[in-house]
Amino acid sequence: MNWSHVKLIFHREVRDQLRDRRTMFTICILPLLLYPLMGMVMMQVAQFHREQHVTIGIVGYENWPDEFPLITEVKNDKIHWRKLPADGALVDSFDKSEMQPKSGMRDEPGTESSSVSSAPMVAEKLLRQMESDAIIWVPESFKDSIAQDSLVVLSNQRWERSQLAVQHLRERMNDWHANWLRNHLKATEVGATILDPPKVRQIDASDAETKRALVWSKILPFVMLVWALTGAFYPAIDLCAGEKERGTLETLLCSPARRKEIVWGKLLTVMCFSIGTALLNLASMHTTASIVMSQFAGLGAGDMVAAMGPLPLHSMGWLILLVIPISAMFSALALAVACLARSTKEGQYYLMPLLLVGMPLVMLPMIPGVVLSPGTSIIPVTGAVLMSRALMDGEYGHALLHLPTVFTVTVLCCLLAVRWAVRQFESESVMFRDVERASMKQWIRNVWRQREDTPTTNEAVLCGLLILVCLFFGRLSLGGMSLTWTSIVQSTIVIQLAMILAPALIMATILTRSVRKSLRLHRPDGIELAGAVLLAISLHPTYAAFAAMVGAEYKLGEQTIGMLMQFDSIIASTPIWSVLLVLALIPAICEELAFRGFLFAGLLRNGGHVRAILLSSILFGLSHGVLQQTITAATLGLLIGWIAYRTGGVVCSIAFHCIHNSLSMLLAAHSSRGSGVSHWLAWVLEQNDGRIAYTNSWCTLSVGVSIALIAWFATKKSFTVSLNLRETEPRRNSSESKLRFGKKAFLP
Amino acid sequence: MDLVQVQNLCKTYPDAVQGEFRALDNVSFVAKAGEVFGLLGPNGAGKTTALRILATILKPTSGTVRVFNFDVTCQADYVRHSIGFVSNNTAIYDRMSAWEMVEYFGRLYALPDDHLYPRMEKIFRRLQMDDFKECPGAKMSTGMKQKTSIARALIHDPPVLIFDEASLGLDVMVARALQSIVLDLRDQGKCIIYSTHIMREVERLCDRVAIVYRGKVVDSGSLEDLAERHKQNDFEEMFFQLLMLDDVGRAEKSPALGMPPLNGAIATAMGVSPQ
Q: CB A247 to CB B90 under 8 A?
């Protein structure tokens, strides 16, 4: 790579962006203006609340007990009190009984204004006539029996002033009531001190600065990352789609700069603006907030200021360090996405989907209780944010522990994103995309005419997503069921057949020529089949240990554990053959045909076996609703995928899956039943705390057996694979050219 | 010397309607130093695709293309140094002046400063661009943009120049100026590939032409040869007949297509792709 080209392109692009008023406005001016403006509005609102005077009318103040007056003379009182006589002409003109809370709504004939019949309408009219924001009505009986619920407050919650008036009135009433209570208690034996809560002296281990850092560390990364993405996206659109639009891309592509160099030049530019925007926003928001808070400090909101005051400098440093890798990743993503767009206008449409993908990763760290752990550290972006938060809190040891994972994940994501961007630039169909000429009808006809023996990669991915969506809605609708054997059978069959198998089967029927090949149903080799069964048995102890480990890391909730116990007792009390049929065989067939069949066949194209194994296992994991299951299933999915790849068909993986599930069910059922271990299985199983588990000796032995079997699968030349090769060889050439078509057809 | 050699060039695009679209089908031609080679055809005939392959922007599906004796697929870097590409959309950066633009590309071609600036001044003087040196691209007229494009393509003094419908949208004055620039360059011994669908330009500029229609070379040779072969002195008439003949031949070969030959040619003549 020629770095002088990269430098030249970078310099040009940066200068170009700096000359662009629109980009500069969104990226530099807007953040500088936004927060001061927001701060100003906040101050205005605060001022409104502080200085707004409200008028509260009191009808029948003479009915208020004299010894404890409601209205006390306070300097700068926010409330203007208006005393209105209870028997005044104005009040008399309405039917007082309408106002009585206990009388409800009555429509008495003979009142002066019969049209005004309901209490709300009376209230509004009264408020307007008396020019008050709220009115409190004190009935004659109040003086005698204060405790009775007989006061009426009229207000109109549509008016902001009225809301404020009620708020003030409530505070005043509370003060008054406390006062009244205190005075009454004083006279009794009990005394007023009973009202005082026990005195607590609070000692906080953290100082104000750390607390402040904690508050900021929740808000600032979010704001910063959203802006890092926005700041990356606008220049990215201009740099890719804009250049296509102006026609300069062609010129640049035939210059000596190679595509990779062009991408790097552009990427560095986008990154520059992304980081710049994020930091500008950070600085602007932080400065504004500090100033606003210091204003509040003058008004006696000391606690809030202590919590939101300026962030210590070293914490800022960690934030700035965080923004660099995240900006790099977002920039590469934005660049790759922007490449798809033919025009800047089209590019704008892609911002939303990108935000939708990025947002959950940024939002996740804001959920209370989410901290840096082995689990969260492997999530891209989230891990990095949590890491920076730990560093801001001063938990250096904890952060250092997870540094390798977070660093690896972040670097890996960055590299993948950059590679994607470079690929986009190298792809002719992306860079010189024409307006699609096809109408919907022609496209569908073409998909039908062009269909092949096996699904395309895009069709496979679509199928996977379809299954996930189906499962999401399916689980929602099945969620409320009580846990009985019938409901388990029903939900399993509905989920497996309708949500998992059906999408794959329907797509295989419609979109491909051969359902059998699409589902990878090939004649298996007997020895391979036996090997898969053996591997499932020998690997089960390792899997059980792994599942226990995952369970220890991600604790199950009380409710889930209860459900699982109930589930175990249900399967223990059901004939074992039906349990195995419903929970082992059916899921094995349906899930394997979908994930290691249709999906796998599509993803396997173009030598994408790594892609096929990885993606199919991720989707397989996601199809299990619970997080713990997702992790274990995805990990196991990797192995099943590999077996499916090595054996060239789905039958061996079905066997593996079925045996695996059966073993899990048998163990659970036997544990729950509490029956002992029969003597001829004593070398494998033992009773441990009431549960049946594998013996240590078998665990050790099984690992050895598994390794041997895996090695056998890895070295063996599969019978089915060679069978498939013979089947597909003559067609290879034709299918390859159509493959590219498939790629295009899926583009938006 | 044959500076551009194209042999059995094929290019297919994936297409949502037909599954595969053959933009170029067995195209062959050669162009020599000191000549203007015209690539002639209606819109959508495949001219731009061919030129983009020559400029290493696209990769050929099959066939060999050599520019200045370098292969466009495996020696793309060398090919890029030996061509100058002027496209039809007068590609100019909006927020860059003419001077900056040419300077930028000069630097990309790694020209040393003491070579770059004298050359830039020479080119700017020759193309009469000194008046709008500092004018940003967004404020240039089409003529100014085209001149800047040409200056940019000439900066590294390439032996081969490619003009892809460069006269599109230019007024008479500027188009004439462009033609004289092209002839001037030819006289300097450059090999010029000039694609167009305007017959007057062909008659005025091109030494030899290839007529491209629907991705195929229908006929090629010098203007005199073509006139003699088809017994037609009016070049535009000859062009139209050739396309029509091709449509007829196509319809006879595959009657299933059911396209009336005349309509196809008329549609083509009107600049509408018959498909």
A: yes
